[in-house]
Amino acid sequence: MGYKHSLHTFVHRTLVYRLIVIGLSLSLLIGMMALYIERDRVSVEAIHVAMERLSLFSERYDALLADPNNLEPDKLHQAALEFRTPGTQHRSGSFVVLGLYDIQGKLITGIFHDQKENSSAIKKKQMAMVPRIPKGEKDWYKVVRISGRPYLRTSLPLVNSSQQTVGVISGFYEFSPETIKAFRVRGLRAMVTSMLIVLLTTAIIYPVTLRLARRITRFSVQLLEANLDTLETLGSAIAQRDSDTNAHNYRVSIYATRIGEEVGLPPKTMRTLIKGSFLHDVGKIGIPDNILLKPGKLDDREFEIMKTHVQHGCDIIQRSEWLSDALEVIQSHHEKVTGAGYPEGLTGGGIPVTARIFAIADVFDALTSKRPYKEPWSFDEAMNILEEGRGSHFDSHLLDTFQRIARPLHDQFGGKEEVFRDELSAIITKYFHEGMDSLDY
């Protein structure tokens, strides 16, 4: 059954596509999170080193901070130079700018590394600062970018051995190339590792999901086949009761489908048209035999009873959710564009396009087929009758469409009592089995 392959291919393709999209999206999201987390971890390590080094100043030069009222700028300047000498630098980075301020925020001394990149811009930022005693950890540091490069702006209280705050030490800490490289390498490594883990998990899940999807696919095909069997059984049962053959249902379904294709109906509407074509007269099961099988013309009372087959059909079909869309054909295929039809007297575009299409197919087949009470009309006679109904019974545009394709259809199917299973099977395969990739059938 080749049509199963179509649905399987669709499910397989959709599953692969969605797993790839979800896997890549999740891996990218988690990877980016890992990147930033790892970069933050490196940053925290570097910041910890910088802040720890800055706090060492108070311990190392405690003697110079003993008297808050007698801070000696020259000695503090020399201490700052010693503090920032290359021999005392850490591999995580070094201070480009260092400033010492008294308790009022007045600059005592400052040192600047003029040979460093962006030193002039950093010096301006340092000079523009208004140092104050940090009140909490959030005030101790801030990562800033200058010309695209990250720096750590720091501030810590200067505290002597008596635990007196005598001023503020502040500066710009330049991360070393090794630290910046670590930002990138460790972050990217964490990102790639996280992405690989997610993608590997997705790959492991795929065969399990595919196996479950195949089971659902088989069940869906079986369910569709059961529904189609119901469709054919119902339609054929009433057709045989009405005319001793179900060939009529096959012919009108083929005619209506060809008209629908010619006007470019979307697949979903085509499925509605096909269902409705096969079930259009299902309500005749509720019409007494003496009226349904009467060989002559019905009188007014009999015709009123015959018209109730529309409501009978609606009552039968509306119980099935899968067949419910066929109601628009069942209910409206006896409407006329001028409003002279039944049961609701709909006009023009108020009549569903599927019902307007089917009306042409149904009348044409009735005219060109043999009935107990009449012989089949010729093709030209039937087309003349349809033309007389243009704009009153039939939609003019749809009638023009049918006229373009009517002759080859009549030559192949018209008036023949053969049950055209192969042709209808091809239609069913095209619009139901192959149309299952929409999962709306």
TrEMBL record:
CDD domains (alphabetical): HDc
Residues spanning the membrane: 15-37, 190-208
Keywords, sorted A to Z: Membrane, Transmembrane, Transmembrane helix
Record-linked Pfam families: HD_5
Domain HD-GYP, residue spans: 223-418
Domain of life: Bacteria
Protein name, entry field: HD-GYP domain-containing protein
Organism this protein belongs to: Desulfoluna limicola
Taxonomic lineage from the root: Bacteria, Pseudomonadati, Thermodesulfobacteriota, Desulfobacteria, Desulfobacterales
